[in-house]
Amino acid sequence: MLSYKFRIYPSKTIQKKLQEQLELCRWLYNRLLFELNKAKEESRTLKPKDTQSLIVNLKQENTNLNKVYSKVLQMVNYQLWSNIKALHKLKENGKKVGKLRYKGKGWFKTLNFNQSGFKIDFKNNRLILSKVGSIPIKLHRSIEGKIKGVIVKRERSGRWYAIVQVEDELEPLPRSGKTIGIDVGIRHFLTDSDGRQIENPKFYERTLNRIRILHRNLSRKQKGSKNREKARIKLAKAYEKLVNQRNDFLHKLSRFYINNYDVIVVE
């Protein structure tokens, strides 16, 4: 499964719909978690199919849930159980973990349209979502493979993205017969066993310095003020840029090593 990330530009009306649906998904997550905790206290066992069937009844309790596409609500249940499995795995590995927490306002950031409820109009560059509407999308690269789902994500910067999940059969690369070791360090970004040393990229360092300055600016702003919110958005955009720079840099390096070596050992 491959993922393609594209910027989308929802109107103010569509943004309001998306924000409302994110909050409804958060409400559903918390309510399903409440039902699980209640069942545990009463020595009852609930399984994923049990909590999924609860969604039908909860739609009668909270009729606003009908504003959200049904598959998106099912994926909230899937996310809850994925978090539970992750906690169990950490416990099995000897880690000390607590219980799942209820999620506060603004925590939910994704709407998962899995298998259905979406359409991409490649001719007019539009993403069409069930119970949301039509949204302009910047398709800056071609999509190869069968589209299986779309995840709509709101970043802390306020920008919106569509992550298109694609099923694609990858062709194996020709064998090179080469093995290489890679050491990721502090002095050098990367050193490999063939003698290559990759320095820390300067653009990455510049963005880190800007983040330090923006953190200081944010700390000086009065809590609850408009200026603080503006400073928070600037900082969030800088972090978003840092992540994109790091991912692009690592992607280029990984393509080089994957294309030229059969076995890669990272220390």
Task: Supply the key terms.
267 residues, alpha+beta, 11 strands, globular
Summarize it.
With about 270 residues, this protein is an alpha+beta fold.
How big a fraction of the residues is strand? 15-25%
Helix content: 40-55%
Strand order of the largest sheet: 1-7-6-2
Order of helices and strands: EHHHEEEEEEEEEHHE
Largest sheet: 4 strands, antiparallel
What overall form do the CA principal axes indicate?
A: globular
**Amino- and carboxy-terminal Cα gap:** 27 Å
How many runs of DSSP E, i.e. beta strands?
A: 11
Structural class: alpha+beta
Rg computed from alpha carbons, rounded to a whole number of angstroms: 22 Å
Low-pLDDT segments, ≥5 res:
none
Overall mean pLDDT stands at 89
Count of alpha and pi helical runs: 5
What would you note in describing this structure?
The chain is an alpha+beta fold and 267 residues long. Helices cover 45% and strands 21% of the residues. It has helices at residues 12-41, 48-61, 70-92, 202-220, 226-260; strands at residues 2-8, 110-114, 118-121, 126-129, 133-136, 146-154, 160-167, 179-183, 190-192, 197-198, 263-266. The strands form three sheets. Strands 1-7-6-2 form a four-stranded antiparallel sheet. Strands 10-9-8-11 form a four-stranded mixed sheet, with no helix packed on it. Strands 3-4-5 form a three-stranded antiparallel sheet, with no helix packed on it. Strand 8 and strand 9 (190-192) form a beta hairpin. Helix 1 (12-41) crosses helix 3 (70-92), helix 2 crosses helix 3 and helix 4 (202-220) runs antiparallel to helix 5 (226-260). The chain is globular and about 65 Å long.
